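User: Fold this, then the next.

Assistant: Folding the first:
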Amino acid sequence: MGKVYPAIDGRLRDFLLAQPVFFVATAPTEGHVNVSPKGMRGTFTVLDGRRVAYLDYTGSGVETIAHLRDNGRITLMFCAFEGPPTVVRLHGRGEAVRPEDPRFADLRRAFAPDHEQHGLRSIIVVDVERISDSCGFAVPLMQYVGERRLLTEWARRKSPEDLVAYRRTRNAASIDGLPALDEAIGSAHEGAPASI
C-alpha cells in the first residue's frame, strides 16, 4: 500500500541517495512527454525536507530544461532494483539554475566537490509538492555493476568553446521547438569548471 509523506525524512533520504539511477519526467503544456534516466552517483542530493537537486550535464537533448521553462512541472522516480521492493516519486516544480546565476555556486557546494565540473550545464532544483511511495512488486531485481564514464569522457575531449558551440546547436530548443538554452547562455566561460 502506498504512502504519502510530509517531508523527505532520514530513512527516505537514505533510500533516495542510495539509488544509482533515477528517472525524470516532464511534459510541456502541449507536446511530447519526456522521461530521462539519470545516473552517476553523487549527482543527486536532498537540500532539505521539501527540496532536492541534481547536476545536469550537457547532452544530446534538452527536454527537461525546455519543459521547466514552459510550466515547471516535474516528477522524479526512484526504484529499488535490489532489496525490498520500493518506488518513490517526488512530484513538484523545478527550475534549471545556470552557472551564471548567483545561486549556482551555493547550490554546487551541496554536491561532492570532486564531482565532474566540465560539461555541467545546470543544476535542476525541485521544490517537492508531493512525496509518495508504492510497492514496486513488479520492478525486477537487477545487479548494479558500475558507473559508465562515457559522458564525462566525452565532455573532457571538448574544450569549453566546443561545449558552448554544441549547446548552441543541440540544446537551443526542445523536440517540440520550445526554447531551452537561449543566446545569453553562449558566453565563453560556459563550459569551464566553476569555482567551488
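Now the next one, as you asked:
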Amino acid sequence: MNRRSRLLTFSIMACLPVAGLIAAAIPAANAANLARPASHSASARTHALMLARDFLRHLKVGQHAANHSVGVLRPAISGLSQVQSTNWSGYADNNSGGHTYSSVAASWTEPSGSCSGFTTSLAAFWVGIDGYSSGSVEQDGTLIECYFGSAYYFTWWEMYPTNAIQVVGDTLRPGDHISASVVRSGSTYTLKVTDSSRSGDSFTKTESCSGCANSSAEWIAEAPSGSSGVYPLTDFGTWTASGATVSANTGSGVISTFPDDEITMVDSSGSVKAQPGSLNGSGNGFSVSWKRSS
C-alpha cells in the first residue's frame, strides 16, 4: 500500500519510560544525594544504583516527540515510509486503513552501554501499543543508564493513564536474552518482560485502560526525555530486535504485515543519532545502530 507523504505532529505528555540526563535535571530536593560515589566498593555501587534508579522516576518514555517529517516513500517496500524523530528509532505499524492493535512482541539480546565521562545518558529498548499517533501508551522493555561513568541496566513497564515508568529489575546485564510483549484483551492489558538469565528482572503485569487508542504497534530504541527535553543517547552499539509479532483487528503477522514506518532518530539539526536497518526477509526483525549521543 502506497501512502502519500505527510507531517506527523504529536505532543509529548508529561509523564514517563526513556533519555540521557544531566544532574541539573533532577529536582532540588534530590540535589544533596548527587555526590559522585567515592569508591567502587560494593556499598558505593549500591548507593549509586539507588540514586540511578531514583533518577528514572523523572523520565518520560514511549512518547513520540513532535514534528516528525515523513521522507520519500521506498517503492520497493509496500506500505513503508521513512520518518524522522527526535527520540525514537525503529519501526511502528500505524493505523492506515483503520487498523487497531491487540498484541506486540519481540526478543533481543541486551546490548552493552558505553559510558563517556560523567554525563548521564540513557537508551531504552521496548515494544508497545500506542504512543506513535496517540497520547496513550502501553509499553515495556529494558533501559541502559550511564550515571557517573558507570552503566546500570533495568527492566520496566509503563501504562496509561499513569504514564510513569515502573522499574522492576536492576540485575539486568549485557548479553541477557530478553523477550517482551504487550497483549490486550478488551480493556485489559498484560505487560510481560522475561530475562532468561535473571528471574528478578522478569515480570508480568495486568493493567486496565478503557480509553487507550490501540492505534499503533512499535519496536523502538529510544532516547528518554525529562523536564529539559531529550537526554543524550547512551552508546549502545547495535540493538537487534527479532521474532517480532503483532496482532490487529484484521489478523496477525509480523512488522511488515501491516502499514509500517521506519523511524530514524535525529538531533535538532537533522544529524542522525540512531539509524534503523531494513527489515529482514521475514519482516520480523531489524537492527538499530547508535551514531551519536546528541
